[in-house]
Amino acid sequence: MRTGWLAEFTLAALWVALAGLLWLILGGTLGWWVVLALVASGLRHIIQMHRLESWLRDGRRSQPPQSWGVWGEVFEHYYRMQRRYTKRKKRLARVIREFRESTGAMPDGTIVLDADRRIAWFNSAAVRLLGLVGNRDIGQPVTSLLRAPAFERFMRDGDFGRPVDIDSPVNLGGRLSIRVVPYGRGQYLMLIRDVTRLQRLENMRRDFVANASHELRSPLTVLGGYLENMTDDEAIPEIWEAPLTEMQAQTTRMTTLVNDLLELSRLETDAPGEPDERPVDVPEVVRRVRREALAQAGGERTIEVDLDDSLGLAGTENELYSAFSNLVFNAVRYTDPGGRIRIHWRRDPEGSASFCV
């Protein structure tokens, strides 16, 4: 038995013994003396509870009241719990302070969102990138402060596997990339990065590819025309037949590469936003590609098709035609005369569509 409880039982025994002694000395009814002893013991416990309640109400900032028995141990337990809680609180405050200092030093904006996607905290970079204002924006829905259709759709859909790019709300011509990472219990970490410089470099690369392709197209057309005339000219010595054929083949190859680069540049420079997708009759697109491929093959190659006429696709018809024709025309180009090319448009066992050449 613990010392505190032993002391309490000893005290109770003393109260009973005192009641019996008073009964022997003063006389009267023994039961009343025992009741008086129990009342005195109960008053002690009430006084100790009042001391505990007063100490807890004061915030437990001072030393616990001095007592003995069970109440002394209760005060001591509470005091030890208070010290553990204080240490844990200081440790947690230190972790939070270090987290804020580290995120505050990051060049990327950082915003903590609660389960309702309201702003719980943000660093100085978020102030610079989004124009947030101190405590005024704490607790506000992030979509109310960052009004961009693409971002609102991004948050509404909840598909955070990829970042979303939006125009900067504070820097005209700037571009921001936003990524949202769910964590904890319904909380979100929102990371904002300024990608203006990267986008400008990407635009420069696309412009260079487009301009270089256009500049190469004209001389290649001229070279191709001269080579075609020279091939058909009977005055050209026979010894030049093989070199002219090879030069014509290489010119055709370069023209194809330039056309591919132009098509790539066109696809990359399409305006961002909602894709202009419509139901596309893919079997009819494939038949059109086959007709053009047969004309290109000149009757020297066989092209077979296996189509599911009931299988369509939502997309952009010109882009689908460009992708399909590129595959088929390459097959014609690299298939020996007399060869056979097969085109399949079917539904996979998993339920998705498959175009195969």
Structure report:
The strands form 3 sheets. The chain has a 5-stranded antiparallel β-sheet, sandwiched between helices. A 3-stranded mixed β-sheet has the order 7-9-10, with helices on one face. A two-stranded antiparallel ribbon has the order 6-8. It is elongated, with a radius of gyration of 42 Å. The chain contains 10 helices and 10 strands. 58% of the residues lie in helices and 15% in strands. It is of the alpha+beta class. It has 4 domains: 3-88, no CATH class; 106-194, Beta-Lactamase (2-Layer Sandwich), CATH 3.30.450.20; 199-268, Signal transduction histidine kinase, dimerisation/phosphotransfer (DHp) domain (Helix Hairpins, Orthogonal Bundle), CATH 1.10.287.130; 278-356, Histidine kinase-like ATPase, C-terminal domain (Heat Shock Protein 90, 2-Layer Sandwich), CATH 3.30.565.10.
